[in-house]
């Protein structure tokens, strides 16, 4: 690998920050059009086959994931030079992703500023304990943490709770009027949308199109977020030893996916570059990898390898890696 430090890479990657209005607009259109089209196709199919309608809805979940990834880029101000345009597109997309834009943007900003910092865990992260912290828990505390880190909780119950319930309130920012407005206006827009669907189609399209699309997209989204930072040799340090750039480069994965899935997830798998230079539009991330092959070789996770990461639960401070519960010695 080239002899460059994380801070050097951050400086090099600034050349990819420049957005292209035409390309950004095209990427949004190429996502919104099939999303709306598949919604219409699923609704039409309800008259003939509920099963096929649900299958189409599940296919559409991938385009909803892409809409969320575009909303994510809007939150970083990367798609357009004009901040207001980024923000308004992000707010509109939040109606479809069930995510209040202002609340999410603030939480995500905290995540970027503290990712990998053991002292500042809490907002925008998967809860992760160190081996020592886990060993010091009472039995009931250990049980609660084990239940939380179980795949059923993380990837099925968790996504449903996060997108259908938690996002309805500005959790973590309850005292800020601006975030209440963001959450409540998003809620009103969601309720209005569901009411319109119900008015024209009854409960059927809500149950067999809206819910499958949204729930599956939520599961995929949480899975992507999990593998972005929860891999064996990720980066965690206490504040005294923590470095923003090292955490970005070494604590974020490069999730290698087949071409279509890389496109449908808006290159979010190239996460180490994104964290190192979060102002790069998602469609320029692959160019950065191509131009700098040594970055392409870092923190690689294939889909098969990523499945194994779900069995890692605790940060081993001695060996600087995530380990499963089975590797934790029992207390005397």
Q: Could you characterize what this model shows?
A:
The chain has 332 residues and is mostly helical. 62% of the residues lie in helices and 4% in strands. It contains 16 helices and five strands. It has helices spanning 6-12, 21-45, 50-75, 83-97, 101-114, 131-135, 139-148, 151-165, 177-201, 203-229, 244-250, 259-264, 271-276, 285-291, 293-296, 303-309, and strands spanning 129-130, 254-255, 300-301, 314-316, 321-323. The strands form two sheets. A three-stranded mixed β-sheet has the order 1-4-5. Strand 4 (314-316) and strand 5 (321-323) form a beta hairpin. Helix 3 (50-75) packs antiparallel against helix 4 and helix 3 (50-75) packs across helix 10 (203-229). The N and C termini lie far apart (44 Å). The model has no long low-confidence stretch (mean pLDDT 95).
Strands, helices and their partners?
Layout: H1 6-12, H2 21-45, H3 50-75, H4 83-97, H5 101-114, E1 129-130, H6 131-135, H7 139-148, H8 151-165, H9 177-201, H10 203-229, H11 244-250, E2 254-255, H12 259-264, H13 271-276, H14 285-291, H15 293-296, E3 300-301, H16 303-309, E4 314-316, E5 321-323
Parallel strand pairs: 1-4, 2-3
Antiparallel strand pairs: 4-5
